[in-house]
Design brief:
Blueprint lengths: L11 H35 L8 H24 L3 H49 L2
Helix pairs in contact: 1-2, 1-3, 2-3
Keywords: Membrane, Transmembrane, Transmembrane helix
Protein name: ABC-type transport system involved in multi-copper enzyme maturation permease subunit
C-alpha cells in the first residue's frame, strides 16, 4: 500500500529558476553594484564634495530593492509552475539591475545641478581676474 502525501512536489524547473535568479542577482550585486558604489563614493571623497553622492537616496533604493528582490525570489521558490518562477526570477534580476543603475543616475543628475551652480562662479572669477 502506498501512502500519498497531501502536499505535491514542486517541479525541478521551479528550483532551477529560483537558483538562476538568485545567482544572477548575487553576481550583479558583487560584480556591478558594489564596485560602482565604491567608485562613486571614492570620486566624491577625492573631489572634496564637488561630485555629490546622495548617500541617503542610494541606501533607501538599495534597501527597497533588496526587499523586492528577496520577495520575488521567495515567491519564485513557492510557485507550482516553472513559468511563473522564471517570471519572478527575471523580475528579481531586472530590479537588481535597476538598483545598480540608480547611483550612477543620481550622481550624474547631482553633478549636472552642481555644474549649473559653478558656471556663474567661474564667470565672476574670470571677470575679477581680467578686470572686465
Amino acid at each position: 500500500m502506498r501512502v500519498s502525501s497531501s502536499r505535491a512536489r514542486r517541479p525541478r524547473g521551479v528550483y532551477i529558476a529560483t537558483g538562476v535568479g538568485a545567482a544572477l542577482t548575487a553576481i550583479i550585486a558583487l560584480a556591478l553594484y558594489l564596485p560602482l558604489v565604491g567608485f562613486l563614493a571614492a570620486t566624491t571623497a577625492s573631489t572634496a564634495g564637488l561630485v555629490p553622492f546622495p548617500f541617503a537616496g542610494v541606501v533607501g533604493v538599495t534597501l527597497l530593492g533588496l526587499v523586492v528582490v528577496a520577495g520575488a525570489l521567495l515567491l519564485a521558490v513557492t510557485r507550482r509552475r516553472p513559468w511563473m518562477s522564471w517570471t519572478l526570477a527575471i523580475i528579481a534580476v531586472l530590479v537588481a539591475l535597476a538598483v545598480t543603475v540608480f547611483p550612477l543616475i543620481a550622481v550624474a543628475v547631482g553633478s549636472a545641478d552642481r555644474a549649473s551652480d559653478i558656471v556663474p562662479l567661474l564667470i565672476d572669477l574670470w571677470q575679477r581676474v581680467t578686470g572686465g
